Amino acid sequence: MDLGNIASLDFFYPEAILTGTILLVVLLDLVLTNKRALGLVALAGCLLSLWATLQLYGTSGGWLFHRMIVLDNFSLFFKLVSLFAAILVLWMSRGSREVGEVHQGEYSAILLSSTLGMFFMASSTNLLMAYLSLELVSLTSYILTGFLPHNRRSSEAALKYLIYGGVASGTMIYGMSWIFGMAGSLDYARINQALLQGEANHLGLFIAFVFILAGFGYKIVFVPFHMWSPDVYQGAPTPITAFLSVGSNAAGVAILIRFFFPAVSRLGDDGNWMFLSGVEWPHFLLMVSMVTMTLGNLCALNQQNVKRLLAYSGIAHAGYILMGLVVLNNEGLQAMLFYIVVYLIMNLGAFLVVVIVANATGKEDIESYRGLAWRGSAIPAVCMAIFLFSLTGLPPLAGFVGKFFLFAAVIKQQFYLLAVVAVINSVISLYYYARIVKTMFLDFPQPSDGQVKMTAEAAVLLGLLSSMTLLFGIYWGPLVAFTNHSLSFFVK
Amino acid sequence: MTHPFFPVLVLFFFAGSVVLALLLIAQMVGPKRPNPVKDEPFESGNPPKGDARIRFPVKFYLVAMLFLIFDLEGVFLYPWAVLFRRLGIFGLVEMGIFLTVVVVGFVYAWKKGALDWE
Prior knowledge:
The structure holds two protein chains of two kinds. By secondary structure, chain A is an all-alpha fold. Chain A has helices at about 5-10, 15-30, 35-55, 75-95, 95-100, 105-125, 125-145, 150-185, 190-195, 200-220, 230-235, 240-265, 280-300, 305-325, 330-360, 380-390, 400-410, 415-440, 455-475, 475-485, and strands at about 60-65, 70, 265, 275. Chain A has a domain at about 280-490. In chain A, α2 packs antiparallel against α3. Chain A starts with a helix and ends in a 6-residue tail after the last helix. Chain B is built from five helices and no strands. The chains are: A mainly alpha, B mainly alpha. The interface of A and B includes residues 23, 26, 27, 29 and 30 of A.
């Protein structure tokens, strides 16, 4: 199916609904006096778009808008992931004191624009479209990062993010120009054909891929494109940090897989993908993955600010997710998809507790978690422990299952070194995650530490996320089936 | 025998050596007579005064940004106008949607006070 502009609209409802909601929120912002209702309007738009996306899931797929974007289960999977992230973050923002002080209309509209960008990132099959969608996500992320008024750290983070993002996307588009020079087209399918004929220069392709990887890597946050993340994560409003850590990470993985698998690789008969360029990619990605997880974990060891700690842990998790790419087969990709869903749930949960504690104490350092279990309700502390142990990868939590699939995929392809490094890293990560748990449960609160209360909304969300973390830890069958079903690319 | 990109390498080498040669010649042959007036920062021939970092109204940025946005969006009307008859009712509807989005943006900017100078 190769559809033109008008015919594509039938398969474009999720994006159209989101766009409509953005405009509606902007307009309502001018007339409504109750600004808190705007968040609800945005939430309703997201739910409607979620419904439309689910309607499309499982259809046969095709190219839309003259092969600019593609409709297949893979893109719909990532649309669902970014929608879930947006919904949970909008929900989380309603209870955040930090966000309560900013302009609600712009906040919701820009958050939805970012989600829309992620939709296109997941589905673009043209280098130009890939670049534009990545820029849409980036620009909205810069604004959201610097959203806190009169907050120097937030502004500084936004500026650093902007400069870093500008350099990364400039490098990426330069790499894309090389690909265009060698393949003669921006269209993924045509690039694939051109590479299949084997006329492209291997060294040239290698250089182009490294450049492009700079742009994708900066979204996924892997070394050496990770430098922005700790400052941005610390400076941004906490719900936005949560959104960046799961949403833009997932969208980056989507664009990376879409480019490196259907576009520049070929699926062999044995179920393994082969890069067409003849360059030793697995070893390159293997190094990147190992360095990323090691650096993330080692830097996290000594952090005092919980958001900063979670930023470094996010770098480490990007390294784990990359493990699935190294093995170059569908099993690895499926493990990546599974891990992304699990990471979304547990990481958003951890950030939700950060929001709850910051609402009560106004602080984000580990000291403000002292004796959290004995200050008012014990529920946030217990849930935080669940999320953190799940991030470490301890059974019987969802993080363990996610890591198990990744490790299994790696070991089956006999990348033993990578598996050993990943296990050692998991052990290292236990130290800093458990340090927070120890502070919450074993340290006693000082009289100066205030009580921690949560709103009913936050409590519901917390219960939902922690029960999902527990549920996927013991009953992961449906999620595996879902990711397995989602791994279908439309190529012809 | 040679690689197809060999001429490019030669070009790189040539460009680099020209730059280097010009710098070296200027360094060796050029006369150097520094005086205090020459060492001052150049400000269109006037004697420089005040600090380089001064405050100026940020309002100009806002106007420039709005101008850029609406100017570019206005430019999109031209290709449509040229092909108006061939695009027919489809073009009209599509342009209507596009203009709605632009107008929403304009109303937003207006209501939020982006057009007020004071």
